[in-house]
Design brief:
The chain is an alpha+beta fold. It has two domains: about 170 residues, Beta-Lactamase (2-Layer Sandwich), CATH 3.30.450; about 60 residues, Arc Repressor Mutant, subunit A (Orthogonal Bundle), CATH 1.10.10. About 55% of the residues lie in helices and about 15% in strands. It has a five-stranded antiparallel sheet, with helices on both faces. It is elongated and about 85 Å long.
Length: about 250
């Protein structure tokens, strides 16, 4: 194995993690580098969607893409077993795997592959997919290559989980900031309505809420419109009434 190429690959993966993150491009890079660095003819990645169902997301060749889809459609193959168990699955000779995965073994051999090794993309108990290495000739991938392959899968797993966590965090931040902004707008509308009608803030808020519900409006949208508009834009709101309290 080329040590310099291996070092460059890990640096490349690290650079990808801090740049604008493109998941598909990142996983295609994983398949390409796996073929370059390891004793594999082709590689593919299956990744679980938010519902936990595996999807084909990257492949180094069209033959692997079709084979991965075949696995998913027939719910059969070493890559699926790897994902379900969280353990590596090694098949050094697909000719002998006909009883375990008859349809997959036949399809893989027809596609030109004689061996496959599936490595889990896992961080502790969380399994998000599998990195699958295909060989055109029978034989096991060396222990050293498998260790490097698992390291590549581990780096990719950490990157993907970090990206998911960041995205969830950003969404929560946006939701929180939106709620805070809405709250400020509603307070301003309450103050404007209370001053105009000579009400206390509680009664002004009750009027706003009742008007929003009666007219099927979001309270924050009503508040912003009331601040920006004129009394004529909100008939009934600027007249004192007994608001609903439910």
């Amino acid at each position: 194995m080329d040590g310099e190429l291996l070092s460059d690959a890990f640096v490349e993966f690290a650079d990808t993690m801090v740049a604008d993150f493109d998941v598909i491009d990142y996983l295609h890079l994983l398949t390409q580098r796996s073929v370059q660095l390891l004793d594999a003819s082709a590689a593919g990645v299956l990744l679980a969607d938010p519902r936990g169902e595996l999807r084909m997301v990257a492949a180094s060749t069209e033959a692997v893409r079709v084979l991965e889809l075949f696995q998913l459609q027939n719910d059969q193959g070493p890559c699926l077993d790897c994902f379900r168990t969280g353990q590596p699955v090694a098949v050094a000779d697909l000719a002998a795997a006909g009883q375990t995965w008859p349809q997959f073994a036949a399809a893989a051999r027809e596609a030109g592959f004689a061996a496959v090794h599936a490595l889990p993309m896992r961080l502790r108990a969380q399994i998000i997919g599998a990195l699958n290495l295909f060989r055109a000739t029978p034989g096991a991938i060396s222990h050293e290559d498998l260790r490097v392959g698992q390291a590549l899968a581990d780096v990719a797993t950490i990157a993907l989980l970090q990206e998911r966590s960041l995205r969830r965090s950003e969404i929560l931040h946006e939701q929180l900031q939106g709620a805070l902004n809405s709250r400020v707008t509603i307070e301003q509308a309450k103050g404007k309505l209370a001053e105009r009608l000579g009400l206390d803030m509680d009664r002004a808020f009750a009027l706003l809420r009742a008007y929003a519900r009666d007219h099927n409006l979001r309270l924050s949208d009503l508040a912003q419109g009331f601040i920006d508009g004129t009394p004529a834009d909100f008939p009934g709101l600027t007249r004192q009434a007994s608001p609903r309290t439910d």
